[in-house]
Write a structure and sequence with these properties.
It contains 19 helices and 20 strands. By secondary structure, the protein is of the alpha/beta class. Helix 1 packs across helix 2 and helix 3 packs across helix 8. The chain is globular and about 70 Å long.
Length: 599
């Protein structure tokens, strides 16, 4: 320590070193660290704060002239890829403005690119983009088989610089305590990756500590290879190390549902976790390779005082447990939109009561869409990022048209809903991602939007097109009419997913719910959901009145059934990138959860 202080004094001078040490001491609220660890942690936060402030200012400048920024980013994308096979086909070199681009290039869906991406995966170059992709990333939200999207190193940098660090700046300003030298518990799962014959890796683009080695000092998460464990064992280990540190400053995960199910795992395993904290061990019943188990054991020390404190709080119950076992917790950083709303509510009202939840970015595998600059507000509103992708907007009324007219960023209106169309840096041009947003305001010239629904998450058995958002509102109302019931989780499906088991009944919706507080529902109670949906949707009511759509069928599953479904779905992709599927369209997913029905 003396040597380090001597070196700092020599480099910075006595005055600067004293001020630096005072600031470090003032911010040092967390678990005891060595001086080197403190310096590393402190400098990492300072660099992130500087980057965030700088990028925020660049974003502010961009929002004052969105026409110019959008024009420049489009022409930059076209010029970069004008000599590719695709660029020659659509004459990118001749396009000088967005009007011409809109005229000569059609609106597209994924099927437009699948053959090109297949060729790229086999090693062909200069097809869609001029550079070799760094990864073929699996999309997280597709209801059918996962699609592959080109990613480059620039994609990751763009997400980090224009997305995450901007949101860190907003978070630091809204919650100054997040700049203290406290560790972050990040629950993550090492992505499963493979490689194509061409050598291009196939996986999911996620942010986890092993990817950003320079950020490791911020986390209590471990560095041993968690890919050698099952997801449940990896989560157990991360919870164990999080429980060791009473002074955690933040919980972080890729979705609200992942945070919720981490809390569920904590409630389920608290006795063995507390015992492991007390004895400084890793539960020997976990299926962890012996060498990794030994490595983990070396990082743990018996802590009977902390174990006693934890046991005392757990025995009181789990309402508001996060704040009781981590009293210095500042915020929960999670991504949520639309289908995650129930998990957000459950976290706020139970496990994480009293702790702000912050959903920082609106992003898809195809690109960064927006940033939430208002962490202290309960609404999830996102400022569109004009320098990340080129945006077009389809009015909601025209969403079902194959080639509808589109609007540019400065042409859309507050209060209206639009389907997003993106032109990104990775070979997707005028691409319809299927997300519908509502413009809730403007920041300077730039739209601020609220996610509403995904077009592929709609129910449609007779052309009625009921969105997941409307269904959820009806379900919320119905649950209030079921005395003693609390909604834990839910999903929907169209009756045709039943195949021959549908019989001769009229087309209808199948709904599966997991409830707390009650074990069964009467037929009258189940019918309340159908009545609620008729109140929410006049279109649905008219189809029910004519008898062309049958009544909703409601099924109940036992505790933990949806967690098992999430694990089953994530086995087809990656747990970090898991997105809640409310409307199930894959029969194997439906069959899995339907097999858990108890009533």
């Amino acid at each position: 320590m003396i040597f380090v202080i001597f070196i700092l004094t020599a480099l910075l001078g006595v005055g600067v070193t004293v001020l630096l040490w005072r600031d470090i001491h003032h911010r040092s609220k967390g678990k005891k660290q060595t001086l080197i660890q403190l310096l590393n942690h402190y400098l990492t936060l300072r660099v992130l704060a500087w980057l965030g402030s700088r990028q925020r200012q660049l974003l502010e400048n961009d929002t004052k002239n969105v026409y110019r920024v959008q024009h420049d980013i489009l022409l930059q994308r076209l010029e970069q890829n004008q000599n590719t096979e695709y660029g020659h086909k659509y004459k990118f070199s001749a396009i000088q403005d967005r009007i011409t681009f809109r005229k000569v290039h059609p609106l597209t869906h994924y099927s437009h690119y699948s053959d090109y991406i297949q060729r790229i995966s086999q090693g062909e170059e200069n097809v869609l983009i001029s550079e070799r992709p760094s990864m073929l990333a699996m999309t997280s939200g597709a209801p059918g088989s996962s699609a592959l999207v080109l990613n480059t190193s620039a994609t990751a940098i763009d997400y980090f610089m224009k997305g995450k660090v901007v949101c860190l700046d907003a978070m630091y300003k809204a919650f100054p305590g997040t700049q203290n030298l406290q560790k972050i518990a990040k629950f993550f799962f090492t992505p499963k990756e493979s490689r194509m014959e061409s050598g291009i890796p196939v996986g999911s683009y996620v942010s986890y500590p092993a990817v950003n080695k320079y950020l490791l000092s911020l986390y209590c998460t471990l560095s041993p290879p968690l890919d050698a464990m099952t997801d449940s064992d990896a989560l157990y280990i991360q919870l164990l190390f999080a429980l060791q540190d009473r002074t955690l400053g933040m919980l972080e995960d890729g979705s609200a549902s992942a945070v919720y199910y981490a809390c569920v795992a904590l409630q389920k395993n608290w006795e063995t976790l507390t015992e492991d904290v007390e004895l400084g061990q890793v539960n020997p019943e976990l299926k962890i390779p012996p060498d990794i188990q030994h490595q983990l054991s070396l990082m743990l020390k018996p802590n009977p005082l902390r174990a006693s404190e934890l046991r005392r709080e757990f025995e009181k119950g789990f309402h508001g447990i996060a704040k009781r076992i981590w009293p210095d917790l500042q915020v929960v950083w999670e991504l949520d939109s639309g289908s995650e709303e129930l998990h957000v509510i459950n976290l706020k009202e139970s496990y994480c009561k009293g702790i702000p939840l912050y959903s920082p970015v609106y992003a898809t595998t195809e690109g960064l869409i927006g940033v939430n600059l208002w962490p202290e507000r309960p609404d999830r509103h996102y400022l569109l990022c004009p320098r990340s992708v080129f945006f077009e907007f389809i009015p909601a009324a025209a969403c079902e048209e194959e080639q509808p007219s589109t609007l540019f960023m400065e042409e859309i209106k507050e209060g209206e809903e639009y389907e997003l169309v993106l032109t990104n840096a990775c070979g997707f041009y005028r691409y319809r991602i299927g997300d519908v947003v509502k413009v809730v305001g403007f920041h300077n010239q730039c739209p601020v939007v609220e996610f509403k629904y995904r077009k592929n998450q709609m129910l449609n058995v007779r052309g009625e097109k009921i969105s997941e958002q409307v269904l959820y509102q009806a379900l919320q109302h119905a649950v209030k009419l079921w005395p003693g019931a609390d909604l834990v989780d839910y999903c929907y499906a169209e009756s045709n997913i039943l195949g021959p088991y549908c019989g001769t009944s009229d087309p209808h919706y199948e709904v599966i719910v997991e409830l707390k507080g009650i074990r069964n529902l009467s037929e009258d109670q189940r019918y309340k959901l159908d009545e609620s949906l008729q109140k929410e949707s006049g279109i649905y009511k008219s189809f029910r009145f004519k008898g062309s759509i049958g009544p909703i069928r409601v099924h109940l599953v036992g505790p933990g059934a949806f967690k098992e479904l999430h694990n089953f779905i994530s086995a087809h992709g990656n747990m970090n990138q898991f997105r809640v599927h409310r409307v199930l369209q894959r029969k194997e997913f439906w069959d899995f959860i339907y097999g858990k029905v108890v009533s």
